[in-house]
Amino acid sequence: MLGLDKTAMITPDKALTGRDAAIPITDRHVVLGTPLTGPWPEGHEVLYVAMGCFWGSERIFWQTPGVYSTAVGYMGGWTRNPTYQETCTSRTGHTETVQVVYDPAMVTVDQLLAEFWENHDPTTPNRQGGDVGTQYRSAIFATTGEQLAAAEASRDRYQTRLSEKGYGAISTQIARSEDAGDGTFYYAEDYHQGYLHKNPAGYCNHGFCQVSYA
Question: 74: domain range?
Fold first, then answer.
């Protein structure tokens, strides 16, 4: 759409409608061999994070010990079962999101959040580097009250670290998953799942950024 500001959040009434049918994907993680869509082992939890292009974000978390499964998709918007092309228009309200399924006995939510904060720039609203648009906004979508409290505390802690080094304000959206757009995580197309394993030389702009969380 000509004249559309991709950094301006679309309103629900102006978002694309989407479709009823979900995008088909394979049922196993290409690296971990675990299910992509559940069911999850008893005691495991799910955290959703968005930190720019989901290709590099997902790799960070599938390499993290204690993470059982990861998947990429779209969350925080209103279009039903959006496609990648639709999400790229900034007319769905979604941000590129990684579903992180983890065992709290092996990795804490705070350790996962450290990976989140350190590996992208949370101070650039609706962009990561040259990737511009609401689909690249930084976000944490919690599935439990404990995760939400940990996310808010980690934001305050990391803001202190950033401010000490002269960096700007964190713009990360933090919300319960059910309060993020229509509350649904929509799986992205199969070619996006485990993308950097399938394409080792593929695009990735993630890595240590600014200051340490610790």
Answer: 26-198
